[in-house]
Structure formats: C-alpha cells, structure tokens
Specification:
Protein name: Alpha/beta hydrolase fold-3 domain-containing protein
Radius of gyration: 19 Å
Structural class: alpha/beta
Distance between the termini: 25 Å
Organism: Phellinidium pouzarii
Shape: globular
Order of helices and strands: EEEHEHHEHEHHHHHEHEH
CATH architecture of the largest domain: 3-Layer(aba) Sandwich
Pfam family, one: Abhydrolase_3
Largest sheet: 8 strands, mixed
CATH topology of the largest domain: Rossmann fold
CATH class of the largest domain: Alpha Beta
Oligomer: single chain
CATH superfamily of the largest domain: Alpha/Beta hydrolase fold, catalytic domain
Helix content: 25-40%
GO molecular function: hydrolase activity
C-alpha cells in the first residue's frame, strides 16, 4: 500500500505496536481497525498476504486510515489477557491516535466517529469481541471527539462457537492438509512455558509470531496451532474466565450476547469448505444473534437485511484474500461493500 507510515509505540499493557496506513488527500479520514488473525496463537499485523484484498480496496476507495495492533498470544497468555490488550488499544485509539497521525502527517485527522472493524478467522473473533465490548447504540452512546464510535463490522470466517467438537474433542481433523500432530508437541510447549516462568518468576510474553516461513510453509508455531485444534485442547488453551457471572463473563461471545451485549450492523462471510473454522460455527452464531436479537435494531423491528448480511460462499479458509473490488467482482462482494459503506460512512 502506498505512503505507509508505521508506528511501533510503547503502548500500555505490553502491546507490541500499532501500524497506521494512510493515503492522500490530507483531510479527515474514516478509520478501519483490522484485527490480527492466527488462532490467537500466532499472527503478525504486517503480514499483508492474508489480508483480504477486497476489504483493503474499500479502505483505499475511501482513503481510509487503517490501524492494526498486535496483542499477546496464546498459550503464553490467556484470552482474558488478550481482551485486556484490546481494551488498552481501544483507549490508545481514542487518546493518542489523532496526535500520532498529526505528528507525522500535518493536516491528516482520523475520524473517530466512523470506525469499521474488520477481522478474519481469529481476527473475526476479536472484531466481534471488540464490538461487543465497545459498541453502544446511539441513544446510549456518550460521544466526545476522542470516543471511537463503531459503525459496522466485517467478520470473515470468524472462529466462533468454540464449545463444539471441532475445538473440544480429539479426533482426526484435516486442517489445510496438515498431518495429525501429537499431543506431545503441545505438552512440550506448555512445559517450556512453565520452565521459563519458574526461571524468571514471570510469565513469558509472546507477540507478533509468524505462522508461515518465507517459503509459505507452516512454522513450528503454526503447527502448534494445528495440534491444539486437532487434539481438542483449544478451549483449555483459551484459559479461564476471571468472572463467570452474567455481565462479567467475556471469553465466549455467545455468553456476552445472552447477557445483553449488542453488535452494530455486521457482515459475516464464510467459505462452505472451510476446514479450519467450519461454516457451521458461523451458522450457530448467527442463529444465536437472531434468538437474542443481538444486532442493534432487531429488537426495535428493523428488518434483518438492514443490519445483517451473511454470505456462505464456495471456498476454503482465507478463500477471499485475492478477491478484488472491481467491475468483475461477484455480486455478493458488491452487495457486502454497499452494505458496509452505507453503515460506515453515512
């Protein structure tokens, strides 16, 4: 992407950094926050090949600022700690982003009142979690110039519905054609974490870890992620809830929906051949949203198609990374873009 400015800041709570991308002209710009993918076990904010091209094209079309942040990773951290990092990043977004951008690009100002959340796979989980944490209907919102306001979410093949056999049971799972990895790979990694903690008195912190080699083979970290899923240990690796009481629990977004949290207008996209995050997970999640009327407007009688789009498309995990936004684009892409732009920009 042209005219890139990257920031590796000393963000609170051990966040590794944030990246800010922008394009001219130098005026108020809409804001898109991309969440990092990789099982929450690996992933890099700067690894562009796994960013969906058609979503980047939306940002380029609108000259939007894109912000991406790393966070701590499983299994060294817990999901609660990852959500803490997202919380601290959100605070940084409101408190510091404008000054950071102005310092490097005089005259350029992020429009914090129009934020689009985007995430794929584990990033889809984090985008949904960010919305469940920080989205407020307009009637309830306390709006200031430094309050980021979420207008829409794009969740691409999100990793959700974790209380299912795909994540909790040990059986043969063909994940991107990978072999079945042994439990010992997981046990050895957890033992190494425990040994490092015993030696230093501190929990190891890991962020920004590649899932792929330059030759596009899966790294040891990538293979560890596959092993955790194949052996049904993913929910254990997520770590415990700090508080399991209604309104306080937050590891599973389905629980947060039951507790009354809402999403803004949202696009779900899922490949029906997905071997990593099966499409059934999104099916279940969306039925949960419908049951609890958990998208803003549903409880007030707005038609579902005004606040929700769900596209089940032929394809494996990450199938849309090379899809471009142009005149030959599939109709579902054009419809998704129109939906997103309506809610994000109007």
């Amino acid at each position: 992407m042209e005219d890139e400015a990257s920031y590796d800041r000393a963000l609170p709570r051990r966040m590794a950094g944030a990246r800010v991308y922008r394009n001219l002209p130098e005026i108020d710009r809409y804001l898109a926050y991309f969440c990092v993918y990789g099982y929450k076990i690996g992933g890099q904010r700067q690894f562009l090949p796994w960013w969906p091209r058609w979503v980047l094209d939306i940002a380029l079309k609108q000259n939007a600022i894109i912000v991406v942040a790393d966070h701590r990773l499983l299994p060294e951290a817990t999901t609660e700690e990852i959500l803490d990092d997202i919380h601290d990043f959100w605070k940084w977004l409101g408190d510091d982003l404008s000054a950071v951008v102005q310092n490097e690009h005089v005259g350029l100002q992020p429009d914090l009142s129009r934020v689009l959340l985007v995430g794929e796979s584990a990033g889809g989980y984090l985008a949904l979690q960010t919305a469940l944490s920080f989205y407020k209907p307009q009637a309830q919102a306390v709006v200031t110039s430094s309050t980021p306001r979420i207008r829409a979410v794009i969740a691409q093949y999100p990793a959700v519905s974790f209380r299912t056999p795909m994540y909790t049971q040990d059986y043969h799972k063909d994940l991107f054609g990978q072999p079945q990895y042994p439990n010992s790979m997981i046990d050895d990694h957890l033992a190494a974490i425990a040994a490092a903690r015993a030696e230093t008195g501190k929990q190891p912190i890991v962020t920004n870890v590649s899932m792929l080699t330059p030759e596009l083979a899966f790294t040891l970290r990538g293979r560890l992620a596959f092993a955790i899923q194949q052996r049904g240990r993913y929910v254990d690796i997520l770590g415990p809830e700090r508080d399991t009481s209604p309104g306080k629990r937050r590891v599973f977004p389905e629980d947060r929906i039951e507790d009354g949290n809402l999403l803004p207008p949202v696009v779900f996209l899922h490949g029906v051949d997905d071997s990593i995050a099966p499409v059934g997970g999104s099916d279940m999640f969306i039925e949960h949203l419908r049951k609890y009327q958990a998208i803003d407007g549903l409880a007030q009688g707005r038609p579902e198609n005004e606040v929700l789009r769900y596209y089940r498309v032929q394809g494996e995990h990450l199938f849309d990374t090379e899809i471009k936004l142009d005149e030959d684009t599939d109709e579902w892409v054009k419809d998704a873009v129109a939906f997103v732009e309506k809610h994000w920009l109007e």
